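REQUEST FORM: STRUCTURE PREDICTION
Request ID: SP-0412
Submitted by: Lab K.M.
Chain count: 1
Length (residues): 291
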Amino acid sequence: MDWTKAKSILIAAFLVTNLLLGAALLTDPTRQQAAGVSEAYLQQTLAFLEDENVVLETPLPRQTPSLSAITVTYRFFENSMITRLLGDDWEQIAPHTYQSTSGQVTITNDKLLAWQPAEPLSPPPDLREETLETVSQALLENYDFSTGGLTLSQIYLGMVPEYDAEPLHKLVYEQTYQGRFVGESYVHVYMNQRGVVAVEALLLEDPAASDQTGTPRVMISAPEALLRKLDEIGRVHRGEGPVVVSRVEAGYYFALTRDPFTQWESVASGTAVPAWKIVLKNGTTFYQEAF
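STATUS: Completed
RESULT:
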């Protein structure tokens, strides 16, 4: 991709788009609650993405919602959770790492948990997606991972060498607030025909109890969010094939694990801001703040 050329074109496109949107908001107060993407701008964006070898497997959202930030509180995993996963005979074998005859648990900064059972759990009767979802949900409820607002987002199939030598289905669960994702919070369940071989979790307390902060504002459009993120996507995607975008959606984002100035082991809560989430077909996920 010619990202230098892309950046120059995008700057001009953003200026024109922002002028038109600003004029529309000034002349029509109702547009402050929701805004749409013009057909001309959408088609120009799609043509540009095609030129840059970006393939969309999902329609770009036409409506730009009006959202405010929300306050989120992270869930801390304590010794009781280790006992639930490993039994009473566990011992600490390294900083943040615990082990028993039942498996191993690593808890980073009291929030990010990785669990590997000694033997696969809950083998599914078949590998249909509906079956994998049913089996994984039952396991999450049984082991106290089902914090409020947890929903299945996507399922991927691929190699995860750190967990198994065979291909694994990765079930991505995410938490939601009023039907929209809240990132970064997730549960990843890794399983194959033998059962669940690993679980990763970074969870919030029930987002339904979150408080909104500030006045709702109209987000940038989905096409603009994707165009703004193209440079970063291009740096990450190094394959010779096209960049395949499988999902684009609006929600909330708190960059806990990527903020270099935050000692995130001490972070108990924070502000999740409106953002667009862009997911590639291989599961790589990007967030673009929406203002």
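NOTES: The chain has two domains: 3-72+210-289, 75-204.
Reviewed by: T.R.
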